[in-house]
């Protein structure tokens, strides 16, 4: 599964969510594109209050406090 992961620098929740992505990827086929919302004004405005955000096929599937189980449920 390929997803987009919206994040920004110095974001504790983002770092935790990416660690959860790494853990899930150890046992499952999961790839993500890391997108810094601060590099695009439109994306920044869209997601600034929601990050981290996981998007799959153009749909937001998880945001905020994203845990291991949240990610597992996406790929199962």
Offer a few descriptive terms.
76 residues; alpha+beta; Glutaredoxin; 3 helices; globular
| N-to-C order of helices and strands | EHEHEEH
The CATH class name reads Alpha Beta
Q: Give the class from helix and strand content and strand pairing.
A: alpha+beta
CATH architecture: 3-Layer(aba) Sandwich
In angstroms, what separates the terminal alpha carbons?
A: 10 Å
**Strand count, sense and closure of the main sheet?**
4 strands, mixed
Uncertain residue segments: none
Please give the share of residues in helix.
40-55%
Task: Give the overall form.
Answer: globular
CATH fold description: Glutaredoxin
* Average pLDDT metric: 95
The amount of beta strand, in percent, is: 25-35%
The CATH homologous superfamily is named Glutaredoxin
Rg value: 12 Å
The count of helical stretches stands at 3
- In total, the number of domains comes to 1
DSSP strand tally: 4
Strand order of the largest sheet: 2-1-3-4
Q: How would you describe the overall organization of this protein?
A:
The structure is a single chain. The chain is of the alpha+beta class. It has one domain: Glutaredoxin (3-Layer(aba) Sandwich), CATH 3.40.30.10. The protein is 41% helix and 28% strand. Strands 2-1-3-4 form a four-stranded mixed sheet, with helices on one face. The longest helix has 16 residues. The protein is globular. The mean pLDDT is 95.
């Amino acid at each position: 599964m390929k997803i987009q992961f919206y994040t920004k620098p110095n974001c504790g929740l983002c770092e935790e969510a990416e660690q959860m992505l790494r853990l899930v990827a150890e046992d499952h086929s999961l790839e993500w594109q890391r997108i810094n919302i601060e590099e695009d004004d439109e994306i920044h405005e869209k997601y600034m209050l929601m990050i981290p955000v996981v998007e799959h096929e153009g749909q937001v599937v998880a945001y905020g406090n994203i845990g291991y189980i949240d990610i597992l449920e996406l790929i199962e």
